[in-house]
UniProtKB/TrEMBL annotation:
InterPro entries xref list: Polyketide_cyclase/dehydratase (IPR019587), START-like_dom_sf (IPR023393)
Name of the protein in its database record: Bet v I/Major latex protein domain-containing protein
Originating species: Chlamydomonas eustigma
PANTHER family, per the entry: BLL4707 PROTEIN, SRPBCC FAMILY PROTEIN
The organism's place on the tree of life at top rank: Eukaryota
């Protein structure tokens, strides 16, 4: 069974505008399902934490593993979740690429799960990424 879920999309906005929403890992800036994000540590500091409260009451703590302004990418894992998630681990990455032809942005969001993941979690991850892209497009006003 595959343990990676990847979704991608072309966003009709320049990479700098999209990166402005993604870089801080403050999902409340663009994800409709997030109520608030509380930051522990500096925004661009690897190792910093984000306490993410979703509108459905779910609370998760994201740990920033990697941040690259050069490559327009951010990687994080979820170190705490209430209610608990059903996998031992999951590492998520969002990366952007400039499309020079028309000054748009290619975005890719991938998640690598531990091998105890089931098909339901993989499908949910796929759906949430698609939903997230729609929210991002709405937040960008494009």
């Amino acid at each position: 069974m595959a343990t990676r879920v990847t979704e991608s999309r072309v966003i009709q906005a320049p990479i700098d505008k999209v990166w402005e929403k993604i870089r801080s890992l403050d999902l409340s800036l663009w994800l409709d399902t997030v109520n608030k994000v509380e930051l522990t540590g500096a925004s661009g500091e690897v190792g910093s934490l984000r306490k993410v409260t979703f509108k459905d009451g779910t609370l998760q703590v994201f740990h920033l593993l990697e941040l690259s302004d050069l490559h327009h990418s951010v990687t994080y894992d979820i170190i705490e979740s209430h209610p608990a998630i059903t996998v031992m681990s999951a590492v998520h990455s969002i990366s952007l690429e400039r499309i020079s032809h028309d000054n748009t942005t290619f975005i890719e969001w991938s998640s690598d799960f531990s091998n105890d993941v089931n098909q339901e979690v993989l499908q949910d991850s796929k759906f949430k990424k698609q939903e997230g892209f729609a929210s991002l497009i709405k937040a960008l006003g494009v």
